[in-house]
C-alpha cells in the first residue's frame, strides 16, 4: 500500500476529518478510506475530461463551419464586438460612479 503526503488548508482538513470520521467511524483507517474514495472519484472525473480533451485531434477542424450561417465577415464581427465591449464598459463605469 502506497502513501501520499498532501498539504491542504486547515479548514479543508478539519471538514474532511470530521466528515470521514462521521461516515467511517472514529477508529483507525477512516481517513484512508475517505481519501481513497476521494482520489478514486477525482480520477474518474478527470479521466472523462482527459478523454474529451484527447478526442479532438485538430481543434480548428472541430469548430470549422460553426459560423457558416453568419452573413458578416470576420472583420465586421470584430468591429461589432468592439462596439459591444465599449458599451458594456460604459455601463460598468456609469454604475460604478453612481455608487460613489
Account of the 3D structure:
By secondary structure, this protein is mainly α. It has two domains: 1-55; 60-100. It has four helices and no strands. It has helices at residues 10-24, 30-55, 59-63, 74-99. The mean pLDDT is 89.
List keywords for this structure.
100 residues, mainly alpha, 4 helices, flat
Averaged pLDDT: 89
SSE string: HHHH
Structural class: mainly alpha
Count of DSSP H/I helices: 4
Number of domains: 2
Could you tell me the number of beta strands?
0
Radius of gyration: 25 Å
- In what range is the share of β-strand residues? under 5%
Regions with pLDDT < 50 over 5+ consecutive residues?
A: none
How helix-rich are the residues, as a percent range? over 70%
- Give the overall form: flat
Through-space gap between termini: 60 Å
Largest sheet: none
Describe the secondary structure blueprint for this structure.
Elements: H1 10-24, H2 30-55, H3 59-63, H4 74-99
Helix pairs in contact: 1-2
Give a brief outline of the structure:
With 100 residues, the protein is an all-alpha fold. The chain has helices at 10-24, 30-55, 59-63, 74-99. The radius of gyration is 25 Å and the shape is flat.
